[in-house]
Amino acid sequence: MNLKQVCTASAVGMLMMGTALASGGAHWSYEGHEGPSHWGNLSHSYSMCKEGKKQSPIDISTTTKTKLSKIKFSYTAEPKEILNNGHTVQVNMKKGSSVTVAGKTFNLLQFHFHAPSEHTINGKPADMVAHFVHQAKDGQLGVVAVLFKIGKENPTLAKLWKYMPEHAGDKKALAPGITVAKLLPAKTNYYHYSGSLTTPPCSENVNWMVLQTTVPVSAAQVAAFSHVIHKNVRPVQPHHGRVIESN
Ligand SMILES: [Zn+2]
């Protein structure tokens, strides 16, 4: 794929994610000289990628049971468009969807996918993950991760994949009738810890909520994603003493 096209697309993608996620826009990738172990050196604005002490993803193994607040999902708005920014396939939301956790509301901006999952559970990734990226009024980010396990076809993904943007920079409007809430498992117990964006600029103070219950995806659906976006996974990062809570 054309390098310049990818850089442009990724800068646009970051702009759409809001200023909190904006970066210098230096090109990065998942392998080679611009791969994860080099991110911190590609741009001054990416320094957290190598200096941060609360980086994501992590392996989720030892957890502490606590009385975590329930996540109240209010995914009522429809998705607006689906795009390929060269790093992932991302669905931008119309305004109006949110989660509320412990009295704090985070608005859903977009969700996107990684295959396999970035967080691992006891050392093992899931087959795919959706990251639902939310932002509170004070700028704080909350990301809900929904892990997918290969099984039967996922009907909501089937609707989205009909619009699969095959090339970096592609963007397609979505027709009405896609219910994003149907991507969530019925049980929404979760793991919680404080981490970062898993892509440059690796900004910290992201509230991570990794749902414990997986949802199904067919092998063909994962393959369709991986055909367009090759392995887009940052390796797991050191815990540096962070506690992972679970409920
Ligand atoms: Zn992600």
Plain-language structure description:
The longest helix is centred in the first third of the chain and has 14 residues, at 3-16. The N and C termini lie far apart (43 Å). Strands 2, 3, 4, 5, 6, 7, 10, 11, 12, 13, 14, 15 and 16 form a 13-stranded mixed sheet that branches. A three-stranded mixed sheet has the order 1-8-9, with no helix packed on it. The chain has a single domain (53-231), classed as Alpha carbonic anhydrase (Carbonic Anhydrase II, Roll), CATH 3.10.200. It is built from five helices and 16 strands. By secondary structure, the chain is α+β, with helices and mostly antiparallel strands. It has helices at residues 3-16, 39-42, 48-51, 155-161, 219-228; strands at 59-60, 64-65, 71-74, 79-84, 89-93, 98-101, 104-114, 120-121, 124-125, 128-136, 141-150, 171-173, 190-196, 204-211, 215-217, 245-246. Residues 1-23 have low confidence and may be disordered. The structure holds zinc ion. Zinc ion is lined by residues 112, 114, 131, 198. The site of zinc ion has 4 residues, from strand 7.
